[in-house]
Amino acid sequence: MSGTIQTNFSKNGSVGLLCASLLNKGTTTLHGIARIEEVNRVIEILESIGVSIKWKDQNTIVITPPKDFKLKNINVASAVMTRSVVMLIGPLIHLLPSFSLPHAQGCNLGRRTIAAHTYALEDLGVKIKTTAENYEITASKISARGGSASGGKTTNIVMYESGDTACENVLTAASLINGTTVISFASANYMVQEVCFFIEALGVKIEGIGTSTLTVHGVSEINKNIEYWNSEDPIESMMFISAGIITDSRLTITRCPIDFLSLEMEKLKRMNLKYKVSKKYYSHNGRTRLADIEIFPSRLKALADKIHSNPYPGINIDNLPFFVPIAIRAKGQTMIHDWVYENRAIYFTELNRLGANITLADPHRVYIQGGTPLRAAQVVCPPALRPSMVILISMLAAPGTSILRNVYMINRGYEEIAKRLNSIGADIKILK
What would the pLDDT profile of 381-394 be if each residue is shown by its tens digit? Predict the structure, then answer.
């Protein structure tokens, strides 16, 4: 492949902003919302409970909340298809004294509880009961329209784990509690920062953005007409980098959120990737730093150390799978440790159908013997977004015609991806 490709707007930022918009009684206009299936499911959920949502153009959405939310009318079919539904708890506790949400699903990545959400929200006075089909939420200590039974006091929360969606839930919950909430062991990941920037634009002061300790100075009400820009997706930037590497291409990826790719690029530098990073500039939100990354054909070598993810500023959990195609190109053996999810590493072995040499050591670790030539094959997308995308870009390096089936999983997170890859030299046809 060759040429230049632009990074699209963030999937996880889009979803977080849609959920956080419920904090505002006024009209919220969000620019840079990704046109993907995950966003479509969240919109269907919001519309079913009374929210008015209109697309203004390709990536701009206008959100008007109802006077009364109708949680009994929630679109269950859409809700069970995305784990994002759980992020509605934070805003909704200020709008309804009690409500229920269907169990969240999304990618099949093993056991994924909402313990981090539950424990933190309980510290704010919210009760969450898990039944066979629903989460039953009671906000007895939170008034119906903002404020707290202990308004003006400081609440200290230690996150059970540094989860992104759990932190976003606590941020939105704390924003309408009239007091100070200190969140320790908070996620500093890109989507959490995005929600912080948006909440600040709504008039809520947040200290410590980008660190593991956030201090939220809540307000009793938010009612303003606001416009806000979502920033670009570092995971998509990493996908294009990986696609360029496995196809031995010279490729420029523009508008990359560089602060969330710096360690990834350092690892690639040590694997002997040749690349250039442009002068930094800002996204439309004025807060997220971007850069253009140009990669060159390189003879890669495997790292002596394992490659693993960590909460930010470590290698992003969703970027880790894109090191698998890179390791296929690198001379030597690479061990990738996907410690977060029980099942995801298993899906990496699907690349053996394309001729890769990947050995599953256990549900979290794979050994990749680099330098094996790939071949065309038919593969069914696994029930996980990033592994499915890894298979697609690996097929680009396999001579011949490969077929990838059940691509809904890819459409959950990537907008017009076949068309965009074709613009830089791929040959992908979508069959109905």
Answer: 999 999 999 999 99
Are 105 and 83 spatial neighbours (Cβ–Cβ below 8 Å)? yes
Whether residue 142 contacts residue 149, with contact meaning beta carbons closer than 8 Å, is answered with yes
Given CA atoms 7, 9, 11, 16 in this order, what sign does their dihedral have?
Answer: positive
User: Is CATH 3.65.10.10 what the domain over 2-229 is classified as, yes or no?
Assistant: yes
Sign, CA torsion 411/416/421/425: positive
**Token representation of residue 393:** 């870009």
The single-letter DSSP state of residue 161 is S
Query: Which residue in this structure is represented by tokens 């290698």?
Result: 315
Query: Do 276 and 254 meet the contact criterion of CB atoms below 8 Å apart?
Result: no
Place of tokens 């690479």: 334
Q: Out of 3.40.50.620, 3.65.10.10, 3.40.50.2000, 3.10.20.600, select the CATH number for domain 234-422.
A: 3.65.10.10
**pLDDT tens digit string along 38-79?**
999 999 999 999 999 999 999 999 999 999 999 999 999 999
Distance of CA 37 to the CA centre of its chain: 13
pTM of the model: 0.95
Same fold, 2-229 and 234-422: yes
Mind listing the pLDDT tens digit for each residue in 303-352?
Answer: 999 999 999 999 999 999 999 999 999 999 999 999 998 889 999 999 99
DSSP 407-421: THHHHTT-SSHHHHH
The helix or strand, by DSSP H or E, that contains position 80, with its residue range, turns out to be none
